[in-house]
Amino acid sequence: MSVKIAGLTGSQIDALEEAVQDGLVPESLTYTATTATYASGDGKEAARLVAEAREKLATKHGRRRGHPVQSLAAVIRKFHAADA
Predict the structure, then answer these.
(1) Residue 24 pLDDT
(2) Sheet hosting strand 36-38, strand order edge to edge
(3) Helix (H, G, I), strand (E, B), or coil: what is residue 13?
(4) How far apart are CA 22 and CA 83, in angstroms?
(5) What is residue 33's DSSP assignment?
(6) C-alpha–C-alpha distance, residues 79 and 64, integer Å
(7) Are 19 and 31 within 8 A, CB to CB?
(8) CB atoms < 10 A from the CB of 52, how many?
(9) Tens digit of pLDDT for each residue in 25-68?
(10) Residue 69 — very low, low, confident or very high, per pLDDT cuts 50/70/90?
C-alpha cells in the first residue's frame, strides 16, 4: 500500500528534505517539488513518521515561527486526510 499527497509548499518540501537528510524518515518516503509519497504503508503511518521527525527537528532547531519544521503540521494533516 502507498499514499501520495499533493499541493505541498516550498516550506513543507524543505522540511521533508531536512528530515530525509537527517535520516529521520525512511527512504520509502519520497518527495518532488509539490508532492510526497509514502510507499510502505497508509496515511496514518506516514503521518506518524512525519510527526516523529517533526518532534526531532523541533528539538534540534527549536519551535521558532518561520522555520520550515513548523510547516510539517500541514503535511501530517494531509497524510491523515489521505486515509479518509
Answers:
(1) 94
(2) 3-5, 36-38, 29-31
(3) helix
(4) 27
(5) S
(6) 23
(7) no
(8) 13
(9) 999 999 999 999 999 999 999 999 999 999 999 888 776 666 67
(10) confident
